[in-house]
Design a protein that fits this description.
By secondary structure, the chain is α/β, with parallel strands linked by helices. It has 7 helices and 6 strands.
């Protein structure tokens, strides 16, 4: 099975995340997309990051009606700080019958060469890159690389930061969130 790994804090997960993940699950050769909820880094200030399991709960609620989209808490059990190469090695060991790929925004590809063991990641995994709005074409060291696939998908300019800030000042952001996530946020009074 081909699985795309979509890493993020998902604080909160919103419709932009779902649109991108669903587009990849439906219009690429990936069989599933797993939302890998990244744990709170113990060395960083907590700020407005919700607890790991609260964010996982939101991802679970957001994806429960989509058979090709799955929540994943694999990094909760790995030593922190963690690197993507370690997560990939652990997943490959746990699921030897799966082929794992990374999903990232075009902006992240620019700094990919700074990631730990990026060469090893590229040697063993494909990367699916979704577009961002940009004034100029984003040039990277990886233009034309055979394992990097640029996806012609919808461009979503919606951020979790915008949603959190909007909730804080009492704006109605309900249309920006999956219904079950909105209900959970509202019930728990998150970000207020």
């Amino acid at each position: 099975m081909k699985v795309g790994l979509y890493f993020g804090s998902f604080n909160p997960i919103h419709i932009g995340h779902l649109v991108i993940a669903n587009h990849l699950a439906e219009y690429s050769d990936l069989d599933q997309v797993w939302f890998v909820v990244t744990p709170h880094n113990p060395f960083k200030k907590k700020s407005s990051l919700l607890d790991n399991y609260q964010r996982l709960e939101m991802v679970y609620r957001a994806t429960k009606d989509y058979t090709k989209l799955q929540p994943c808490d694999i990094e909760f059990n790995l030593p922190q700080p963690n690197y993507t190469i370690n997560t990939l090695a652990y997943l490959q060991e746990k699921h030897p019958d799966h082929a794992f790929s990374l999903i990232m925004g075009e902006d992240n590809l620019k700094s990919f060469h700074k990631w730990r063991n990026y060469e090893l990641i590229l040697e063993n995994h494909h990367i699916y890159v979704y577009p961002r709005i940009s004034k100029n074409k984003i040039e990277t060291l990886f233009n034309g690389h055979k394992k990097i696939h640029h996806i012609d998908g919808p461009i979503m300019e919606l951020s979790s930061t915008f949603i959190r800030n909007s909730i804080k000042v009492g704006k109605n952001i309900k249309p920006m969130l999956p219904e079950f996530v909105w209900e959970y946020l509202d019930e728990m009074n998150f970000y207020k």
